[in-house]
Every structure is written in structure tokens, then in C-alpha cells.
Inverse folding.
């Protein structure tokens, strides 16, 4: 880390970047979070005042899953894990086939060289 002086301004350089970039990024994140919180607060307030008109707000509200939904989710996770295992096995088989092909090519090349001698 080194300090660069140019006139009155002093900047601290870290690995080719400026140290204050993180501060600016954090301030932008906080501003975006504020806008989101404000927006959802307004939507919530409008929903409380008139539930029929602002029905879409219910899509943002967390709800508990029923026993049936929990079983469906668990079954979906099990299916996804099976698919993942199959993909891993296929990848291993493909690598083994490629390795066997390379060895076969080497063998054929050596055989041709021996025939030519």
C-alpha cells in the first residue's frame, strides 16, 4: 500500500484501486436498500388501508407451507439430487471414454510405427 500526493489531495492506493471505492459502493447499497424498504412500506400501508384493491401485496407476504407442500418440496429435492448424481456419473463415464480413446490412439500409433520398421 502506498500513498500518492497530488497537490493537496492524498489518495491511498491498494493493488491498483482506490480505498474509497468500497465506501461509495456501500453507500449505493444503503440507498438501494432504503428505496426498497420505502417502497414495501408504502405497499404494506396501502394494503392495510384497502385489502381488496391491493391484493397483489399478498404475493410478497411469507406464509407457512402445508404438510402436502412440504412433502412435494422434499420429493422435488430428492428428484433433483438423483439428477445431480446421474450427471456426475455421466461426467465420470465421459472422462473414462476420453481416456480410453486417447490410449487407443497411442496404441494404434505405436502399432503403425512398429509395422513400418
Amino acid at each position: 500500500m502506498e500513498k500518492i500526493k497530488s497537490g493537496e489531495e492524498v489518495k491511498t492506493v491498494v493493488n491498483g484501486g482506490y480505498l474509497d471505492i468500497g465506501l461509495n459502493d456501500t453507500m449505493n447499497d444503503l440507498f438501494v436498500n432504503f428505496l426498497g424498504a420505502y417502497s414495501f412500506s408504502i405497499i404494506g400501508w396501502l394494503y392495510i388501508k384497502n385489502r381488496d384493491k391491493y391484493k397483489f401485496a399478498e404475493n410478497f407476504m411469507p406464509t407457512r407451507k402445508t404438510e402436502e407442500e412440504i412433502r412435494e418440496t422434499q420429493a422435488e429435492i430428492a428428484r433433483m439430487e438423483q439428477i445431480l448424481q446421474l450427471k456426475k456419473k455421466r461426467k465420470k463415464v465421459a472422462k473414462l471414454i476420453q481416456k480410453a480413446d486417447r490410449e487407443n490412439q497411442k496404441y494404434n500409433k505405436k502399432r503403425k510405427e512398429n509395422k513400418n520398421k
